[in-house]
Write a structure and sequence with these properties.
The protein is mainly alpha-helical. Among the domains are: about 260 residues, no CATH class; about 45 residues, no CATH class. The protein has a two-stranded antiparallel ribbon. A two-stranded parallel sheet has the order 3-4. Strands 5-6 form a two-stranded antiparallel sheet. The N and C termini lie far apart (about 60 Å).
Length: about 625
């Protein structure tokens, strides 16, 4: 029998122990973190191999020795939680392995790493708390572990300058505010259901209390996963955080846990009414389009990846909002796929950053020759997130597209607008492809920037996680219908996968694509057999071979100058869509207004006190 306590308690306890060790033992800390993450990965595989539904409780041991504490320690394993636990374990191990090399001293031509102190402590605490969020069946334990993740998210970004400090503060404020709203929602849930046990709560969104409870929990999910309009912390965070942490949290665990909790809400905790479904679809569509438009004009590749990570959340929300087996399966499948290829993209970005010290696309180029493994992995991830067959990103998006069409046969307002949801989802994929053409060409293609210096491929601890995730992208796309969906999603509560009409025969398409690639290489090879004379380009007798360079970034600059897009980007630069900035302005404005009352005159203060007491008495009487 699997000891579920070890998945949660062991990483947290070992993380605290590492906190007590001196900082000069970073390598030892890294090795211990890797061993713990490897063991929890093994346990997560064991959890996934359990029967369809298994319930365990930590109360039999009561490890805190507090009377009555065991009633808050219910753990439940079902198809959905098994899926999340499995990938938390896999990502925890891969990114810990990556960190061994990434956190070490960089190449001489690179800037120093900005790795926060006690990195491995917060890494392991995050791992244990993530397992706890996925396994707990008690809302009080859930909110404690959920809040702990917000704290470690803040601690894993180092405030090495004013910009990174601002990003860390913004993250803490937004996540902390959403956690406060989460507590409100949990309190309302208890009032409505008289229980903190998640599996025993089943409410409709027809009453005021249950509706407010749903909206409160929805805000927490949206902020954690990064959905519009609570997404603005993610691009700032990914720009300044270590790439290993960007892959670990905003790209992988935060998406898994945020969408996992939303799936719980939509599939069992609440029965969604028509207007709630419409609201979720609007949020999904806005998240897809607004974020990918922002990604198009980014020249810092880490911010570009951050915005694209936000955009993909829109597809997950859209799939879950449909409420059909096909839509939910597509949303959950896309959740897993996104964690795979987006985490991989951040790993490849970290490899480039480590060996070049550059974060701007305009300062890079031509790295495919010097970092072939990283380039190959990045190309697979870019094609996958862009929805190119036969990779996993295409398959999950295809299921969502088909689910939207199936959803259109309904009679509600949201159903009748199915063409809008489908158009925006497909447009989002096209713009995502355009964004990654920019990223791949800007970093890996063209001529190498002379300012970069010597560049070489990363070592095994860094390229193995990239290759492993790239292989998952290929395997999860080709074998989705025959293996992945029945193995990973059949018991998540979506219904029988064999009846889903959105499945298609990926192996045959994959064979055709493979044949076309082989034929293309043969044609290219035959073209190289014939010797030809090569000479430098020249204009007016002047050789310009070294000077001529055509950057793909110039094309994307014209997008921002178009009339409609220029208006949109201008408002975005002024923080019109940034909830954090708007909230800060409101608080500062209110503070300035109230400061007028502080005149320093005693009689004025007495008047305000009398008015305040009078107001309280009137409210009490009413």
């Amino acid at each position: 029998m699997i000891d579920f306590q070890m998945l949660i308690i062991m990483p947290i306890v070992i993380g605290v122990v590492l906190f007590l060790l001196p900082d000069n033992l970073k390598i030892i800390k890294g090795v211990i973190s890797l061993l713990i993450s490897a063991y929890t990965a093994y346990l997560s595989v064991m959890v996934f191999s359990l029967p369809h539904q298994f319930i365990a409780t930590l109360g039999s041991i009561n490890w805190l020795y507090i009377p009555g504490f065991e009633k808050f320690m219910d753990l439940k394993v079902d198809g959905l939680s098994k899926l999340i636990v499995l990938f938390i374990g896999i990502f925890g191990f891969l990114y810990s392995l990556y960190s061994l090399s990434y956190n070490r001293r960089r190449a001489p031509n690179s800037e120093p790493n900005h790795i926060p102190g006690n990195y491995h402590t917060y890494y392991l605490i995050t791992l244990g708390a993530s397992f706890g969020v996925a396994l707990t069946d008690n809302l009080l334990l859930f909110v404690f572990l959920w809040g702990l993740l917000g704290l470690t998210l803040y601690k894993l970004i180092k405030g090495h300058n004013e910009e990174s400090s601002a990003a860390a503060k913004k993250t803490l404020v937004l996540i902390g505010a959403s956690d406060s709203v989460l507590i409100l929602g949990i309190g309302l849930l208890y009032i409505c259901s008289h229980t903190f046990k998640i599996s025993d709560i089943h409410l409709g969104t027809t009453t005021t209390l249950s509706t407010v409870a749903f909206l409160s929990l929805l805000i927490a999910c949206m902020t954690k996963a990064g959905a519009f309009p609570f997404h603005t912390w993610i691009p700032d965070y990914t720009k300044d955080a270590p790439a290993s942490i960007s892959a670990y949290l905003p790209a992988s665990l935060d998406k898994l846990l945020g969408i996992y909790f939303l799936a719980r809400m939509c599939m069992s905790t609440f029965i969604l009414s028509g207007w709630v479904t419409l609201l979720l679809l609007i949020i999904g569509a806005l998240t897809i389009i607004t974020s990918v438009l922002m990604a198009l004009v980014q020249h810092n590749y880490k911010r570009l990846l951050g915005y694209c990570a936000v955009s993909q959340v829109g597809y997950m929300i859209t799939g879950l909002a449909l409420g059909t087996p096909l839509g939910i399966a597509g949303g959950l499948f896309h959740m897993v796929n996104h964690a795979i290829y987006k985490g991989g993209l951040f790993l490849t970005a970290g490899s480039v950053e480590k060996h070049t010290g550059k974060e701007e696309l305009g300062e890079l180029g031509g790295l495919c020759k010097y970092m072939p493994v990283t380039f190959a992995a990045a190309l697979v991830f870019a094609l996958s997130i862009s929805g190119i067959p036969p990779l996993n990103g295409f398959y999950s998006k295809w299921m969502i597209y088909t689910g939207i069409i199936e959803f259109g046969s309904g009679k509600g307002i949201a159903n009748q607008l199915w063409m809008i949801w489908l158009t925006l989802a497909m447009l989002g994929s096209s713009l995502t492809l355009a964004s990654f053409v920019k990223l791949i060409s800007g970093i890996y293609l063209g001529r190498k920037n002379e300012q970069i210096g010597t560049v070489k491929e990363v070592g095994f601890p860094m390229f193995f996680p990239q290759i492993f995730l790239a292989m998952l992208c290929i395997a999860f796309g080709i074998f989705a219908a025959r293996w992945v969906i029945p193995e990973f999603f059949e018991f998540t509560g979506i219904g029988s996968w064999k009846s889903l009409p959105g499945l298609w025969n990926a192996p045959s398409v994959s064979i055709m694509i493979l044949i076309s690639i082989i034929v293309g290489f043969i044609i290219y090879w035959m073209g190289t057999l014939k010797t030809s004379r090569r000479s430098d380009s020249f204009v007016g007798g002047e050789k310009l071979q070294q000077e001529l360079s055509f950057s793909s970034l110039e094309f994307y600059k014209t997008i921002g100058t178009m009339k409609f897009f220029n208006y949109f980007y201008d408002k975005a630069n002024k923080k019109w869509f940034d909830v954090y900035h708007l909230g800060k302005e409101c608080v500062l404005g209110l503070s300035s207004a109230l400061s007028v009352c502080h005149t320093g005159i005693l009689s004025t203060y007495v008047v305000w006190v009398v008015l305040g007491v009078a107001t309280i008495m009137v409210l009490l009487i009413i």
